[in-house]
């Protein structure tokens, strides 16, 4: 493999004058081409252990029987003596053994940071990380081939929010915890989707798109939850301490490890994260028609969701999210994704958020007790949004 788009207009605009340049300046690095050669093989590598477990369970047994088995060993420790397929025992024995490099205290600092961002964090995940990710055309192809558009964005957002909220709480990743169980389901869902794509379609472009849900795409996704997440929050005036930054990278390194990503490739800091992200974007084409359809579905979710009962409330919410898109994302990306520019009255919304954050942080970042109050308030905000999504997500969705 070689970088395909390093001289393309969309790549140059992003890294020379857009959000990519902001990342390079923040990391203060000049990307080294050796990094591309290190990561490139991951574009055609996948979570083989997860795939083998799915083959022995969900693709071999009745669905209910497979689910009961996975749920059983997710919720309680497994041993060599358990009556389960050897590959299932291998997966769970590996997952329940906490690696020597994991620092729980450092990960909890990252978790507390996620919680204290409150509604700001959720806005960034939706309007910057998720929406901006759609402009990388190839990574979104699994969503198209699994017909995610037909299922609607409400369900996808609920699932993503449920995953993020659970895994970013303090001490959440203890083996057999609720977040751990969700992690197992997510990992096997990725494998199931990958195997179904390979089984059902002859149109998958392996040369350009790599393997479906490949390891490098997975690293890029979780860079979105760490590096890009912080970049977006900084745009909203959120102050991030060095310890919070280190903690966030460590938290997502462990999450990535549990999800089957080769741990030696997961970034420990912003320099490593920007470096691999830079080279990953050299093999991603600009947003295409599929990208625009995914963006349209995400905006339409504001109107389809029944959390707000009145149509004018939903339309206002849609405009507020569009104002964030136009504030956070590069202009050409908004245009490529066909995100309508909101009315001028809504364009002031990000400025109001920034001002509120500055005032709030002056009050709550003064000492540790005030900081903890901010963590608790932010966590409650996030849990409330998740509860609303769970309540209002249609129950008749099928994977």
Automatic annotation (TrEMBL):
Q: Which InterPro entries match?
A: Lcp-like, MPAB/Lcp_cat_dom
The record's GO molecular-function terms, alphabetically, read: oxidoreductase activity
What domain of life does the native source organism fall in? Bacteria
Question: Pfam families from the entry?
Answer: MPAB_Lcp_cat
Give every ER-bound oxygenase mpaB/mpaB'/Rubber oxygenase catalytic domain span: 151-344
Protein name listed in UniProt:
Latex clearing protein
Q: Species lineage, top-down?
A: Bacteria, Pseudomonadati, Bacteroidota, Flavobacteriia, Flavobacteriales
Q: What gene, per UniProt, encodes this protein? A: lcp
């Amino acid at each position: 493999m070689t970088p395909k788009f390093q001289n393309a207009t969309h790549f140059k605009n992003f890294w020379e004058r857009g959000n990519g340049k902001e990342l390079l300046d923040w990391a203060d690095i000049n990307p080294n081409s050796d990094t591309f050669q290190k990561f490139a093989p991951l574009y055609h590598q996948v979570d083989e252990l997860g795939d083998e477990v799915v083959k022995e369970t969900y693709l071999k047994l009745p669905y209910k029987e497979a689910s009961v088995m996975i749920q059983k060993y997710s919720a309680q420790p497994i041993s060599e003596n358990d009556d389960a397929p050897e590959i299932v025992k291998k997966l769970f024995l590996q997952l329940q053994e906490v690696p020597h490099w994991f620092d729980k205290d450092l990960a909890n600092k990252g978790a507390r940071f996620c919680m204290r961002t409150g509604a700001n964090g959720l806005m960034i995940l939706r309007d910057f990380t998720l929406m901006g990710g759609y402009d990388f055309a190839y990574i979104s192809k699994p969503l198209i081939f699994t017909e995610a558009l037909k299922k609607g964005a409400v369900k996808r957002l609920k699932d993503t929010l449920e995953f993020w909220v659970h895994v970013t709480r303090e001490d959440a990743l203890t083996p057999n915890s609720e977040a751990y169980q969700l992690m197992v389901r997510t990992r096997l869902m990725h494998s199931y989707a990958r195997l179904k794509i390979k089984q059902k379609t002859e149109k998958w472009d392996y040369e350009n798109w790599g393997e479906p849900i490949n390891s490098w795409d997975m690293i890029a996704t979780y860079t979105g939850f760490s590096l890009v997440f912080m970049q977006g929050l900084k745009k909203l005036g959120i102050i991030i301490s060095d310890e919070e930054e280190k903690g966030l990278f460590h938290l997502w390194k462990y999450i990535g490890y549990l999800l089957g990503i080769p741990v030696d490739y997961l970034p420990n800091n912003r320099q490593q994260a920007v470096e691999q992200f830079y080279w990953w974007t050299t093999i991603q084409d600009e947003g295409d028609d599929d990208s625009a359809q995914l963006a349209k579905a995400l905006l339409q979710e504001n109107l389809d969701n029944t959390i707000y009962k009145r149509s004018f409330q939903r339309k206002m919410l849609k405009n507020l999210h569009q104002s964030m898109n136009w504030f956070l994302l590069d202009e050409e990306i908004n245009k490529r994704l066909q995100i309508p520019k909101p009315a001028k009255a809504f364009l002031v919304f990000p400025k109001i958020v920034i001002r509120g954050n500055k005032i709030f942080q002056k009050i709550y970042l003064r000492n540790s007790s005030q900081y903890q109050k901010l963590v608790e308030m932010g966590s409650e905000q996030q849990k409330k949004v998740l509860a609303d999504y769970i309540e209002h997500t249609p129950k008749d969705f099928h994977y």
